[in-house]
Amino acid sequence: xxxxxxxxxxxxxxxxxxxxxxxxxxxxxxxxxxxxxxxxxxxxxxxxxxxxxxxxxxxxxxxxxxxxxxxxxxxxxxxxxxxxxxxxxxxxxxxxxxxxxxxxxxxxxxxxxxxxxxxxxxxxxxxxxxxxxxxxxxxxxxxxxxxxxxxxxxxxxxxxxxxxxxxxxxxxxxxxxxxxxxxxxxxxxxxxxxxxxxxxxxxxxxxxxxxxxxxxxxxxxxxxxxxxxxxxxxxxxxxxxxxxxxxxxxxxxxxxxxxxxxxxxxxxxxxxxxxxxxxxxxxxxxxxxxxxxxxxxxxxxxxxxxxxxxxxxxxxxxxxxxxxxxxxxxxxxxxxxxxxxxxxxx
Length: 346
Ligand code: DAH
Prior knowledge:
Number of helices: 11
Shape: elongated
Helix content: 25-40%
Bound molecules: 3,4-dihydroxyphenylalanine
CATH architecture of the largest domain: 2-Layer Sandwich
Order of helices and strands: HHHHHEEHEHEEHEEEHEHH
Radius of gyration: 34 Å
């Protein structure tokens, strides 16, 4: 039989059979018979080889059209008949078997905490800014008023990278504060941002230290931003995150990039600030949670902001530390050890 005649007969037969298929299994068999890997359409395609050259393309086109037509018919019919209960292999599906329970995953506690913390500031109108984890020495130190010979540089044990690009040394950022510089260099005040992200320090792991952890940096700059604004924002954040009964206090401190600088303590979440006999706050009644202050005029000069015109506050907090306090976790290494017994609690 000529290919075109055969094509017509296959078409007629297929359409009648598909039309009259009474249930899903029959339809499935027909789909295999015509459209399957070893089906009749496949046969037609193999015969193309023996068709004279001038008719080849027309023949190919006709087979493709038929294929498309049959696929549409089968799909349309499937909608009325549904899918077969029996698998194609003839295997019976046992509806009495208990279902397979799928476990639903969830975010890692550090990521969850970072999102919870960020959302509080986002609700206060702070934008989210990001910077690279590989930073240059200038942004990480010099621009933050920490010159090369300044003892404050020793406070951070920094991972330096081999010098690849000439004079500028690169490092793994040891805090999120360089994002302040990046944002101020490309934005005019007023601005308020937070910068969440990873930071790195060459610390030996112990219950309180790990070479990689997360911080959230905060920065607000404008014409009349004062320490009172800093206090208002932090107070609101602390009550929102740790609970409305939590108290806070400022303690004078030193950071090169803020003047004045302070550390913030909250009333101990274990003993509610009573102190006596509490092993977590060692009887103090307070726990340190973050560093902050008013942006140093030298930092403004570096990014070409007029320090006579603008003022601002900044703060930096450790995300793991926040999670440890809130969820009573006593070892920072647990976050990266991937024990499901630990992670599944969150
Ligand atoms: N970058 C500091 C650190 O990692 C934390 C910090 C302190 C950030 C004071 C600030 C700040 O923005 O004002 O130890």
